[in-house]
Automatic annotation (TrEMBL):
PANTHER family: N-ACYL-PHOSPHATIDYLETHANOLAMINE-HYDROLYZING PHOSPHOLIPASE D. GO terms for cellular component: cytoplasm. Keywords: Hydrolase. Residues 82-280 form the Metallo-beta-lactamase domain. GO terms for molecular function: hydrolase activity. This is MBL fold metallo-hydrolase. It holds the Pfam family Lactamase_B_2. InterPro entries: Metallo-B-lactamas, RibonucZ/Hydroxyglut_hydro. It comes from the Bacteria.
Length: 329
């Protein structure tokens, strides 16, 4: 039986028992924050990185599979003649306030005004490092279509997105954009909320993009969830591109983020394929050194795992095979 989200009253719950609060307590976290000495932020400025705006605005070939990582979980994806944007965040800080909170390590490599016309904006959940209200307001004025998990549409409507441009989905819903192109909301293991009073009031999801020639998996945020990854791989895999988070992980919140090792395990359950790591190298959201996720990924990945490690803003032809820009060195 396919996994389904759990809901009681106004709150969603994970299928598996899932701890969001640190088992060791917040006092222990404060001590680690003060005394641990990992290089959580770059000691030198990064970039500037520049995406090729004019090239990205050209029509997408019907056989294309290209990806441009813009930082964290924001990706411009070109697939089978269509163009999508995932979890758009252009904000300086991943925070309710632009005065405090985790600050970007580098400026967005593509100006928001230069984002080309889109076939859809895909949202995994409503956390600040994945859903940027200011960016949504700008994109709403362009008439873009948004695809999100249940409940997230209320945020979008409040920020000016017309209801007609919002499609909300629960896990396994298939959204037909054309007879040969579908978006499918799929399971994830995480949580949601943008404040103290709305924790888990909206659903979280991963997504499958299934075109006439290519299939792509966008994992959003998720902790280890073997049954889900197996079901997704069996139903829609193998994939021509897998995008999974590798950063912001820690044993204190191991249920809600994969980290490099669990991302590789999920990648195998999904059926393998080229792997583009997301959710790292952009914000200080954990105790690990900022380079640690990609360094560990390179150590742990088998030679048979085709890794895509572009610099921010670097456009990648997925069919060209593995690549490693080493931009973080």
């Amino acid at each position: 039986m396919l996994l389904q989200p759990r809901r009681h009253g106004r709150k969603y719950y994970n299928v598996l028992p899932t701890s969001v609060s640190p088992p060791s307590g917040y006092g222990k976290l404060l001590s680690r924050y003060i005394f641990e000495k990992a290089e959580r932020e770059p000691s030198q400025p990064l970039g500037p990185f520049r995406a090729a705006a004019a090239a990205l605005a050209a029509p997408v070939p019907t056989a294309a599979l290209r990806v441009t990582w813009l930082g964290h979980s924001t990706v411009l994806l070109e697939i089978d003649g269509r163009r999508f944007l995932t979890d758009p965040v252009w904000a300086e800080r991943a925070s309710p306030s632009q005065l405090v909170g985790p600050k970007r390590f580098f400026a967005p490599p593509l100006a928001l005004a230069d984002v080309p016309p889109l076939d859809g904006i895909i949202l995994s959940h409503d956390h600040y490092d994945h859903l940027d209200a200011a960016a949504i307001r700008v994109l709403a004025q362009r008439g873009e279509r948004f695809f999100c998990a249940l409940g997230v549409g209320a945020h979008l409507r409040r920020w000016g997105v017309p209801a007609a441009n919002i499609t909300e989905a629960t896990w396994w819903d298939e959204i037909e954009l054309a007879p040969d192109f579908k978006l499918i909301a799929t399971p994830a293991r995480h949580f949601s909320g943008r404040g103290l009073l709305n924790r888990d009031s909206t659903l979280w999801a991963s997504w499958v993009l299934r075109g006439p020639q290519h299939k792509v998996f966008f994992g959003g945020d998720s902790g280890p969830f073997d049954d889900a990854f197996q079901q997704i791989g069996a139903a829609y895999g193998p994939f021509d591109l897998v995008m999974l988070e590798i950063g912001a992980s820690d044993p204190e919140w191991a249920d809600i983020h994969l980290g490099p090792d669990n991302a590789l395990a999920a990648h195998q359950l999904l059926g393998g394929g080229p792997l583009l790591p997301l959710h790292w190298g952009t914000f200080n959201l954990a105790f690990h050194a900022w380079r640690q996720p990609v360094q560990r990924l390179l150590e742990a990945a088998a030679p048979t795992v085709p890794l895509l490690l572009p610099a921010p803003g670097q456009r990648v032809e997925v069919a060209a095979g593995p690549m490693n820009s080493q931009w973080w060195q």
